[in-house]
Amino acid sequence: MTYVMSDLHGCCKQFLQMCETIGLEEKDDLFLLGDLVDRGPEPMPLLLECMQRPNVYPLMGNHEALFLRCARQISPQATPENFFSGYFPFVHEVCTPWLQNGGEVTLMQFLALSPAKRQLVLAYLEEFSLHEHCVVEGVPYLLTHSGIRGYRKGKPLKEYEPDDFLQARPSVDTVYDNDAVLVFGHTPTLSFLPAAAQAEVLFTESYINVDCGAVFSGAGGRLACLRLDDRKVFYV
Q1: 22 torsion bin: left (phi>0), alpha (psi -120 to 50), beta (else)
Q2: 214: which of 118, 189, 192, 193 is 20 to 30 A away, CA to CA?
């Protein structure tokens, strides 16, 4: 079976619960469409959990990109206790965009790791791809974090900029006239269905948005998982 989740944002407990709910097995494939980190309570435990699962394939999200931009430059001597006081120019000049986007919990948990484990986490993040293709039950799928900004039919994926896969904001009417069904997250579906009591996976003729705002449970968000084999959706 092939499963897709997106925008976990540090919701490690929900991730583990979902894995139990779908009965994830080693023979299954699970794609995580970016934004594993930031905002939620356990971004680092979530990353470390995924690192131990060879059948989990994370994609790059805009929050991982922010994380990497900052964390690559953090001194091995930095700790949760001395970072803000001892590295202020770096914090202000490099880390501000990340911190303003919910990165502080991720940063503190990252700094709490040993320097060796930090390097393992960074190496893991560096492997995240911007897009993945898969064919399930004869249907081709293109997986990205946010859709494709500036999409043009026939334009090769290699000609898009990285941010085009990380920062797109498609509308309900956006059409991706592609040979593959586009599956992504990034924009919580509650923003398309503001009257809904709880978020749901959004299916259109050309794309599927699986970001149901797991970290925004107080506003009706929840974690969704799409099984591509039969397009069944699971929620926790």
Answers
A1: alpha
A2: 118
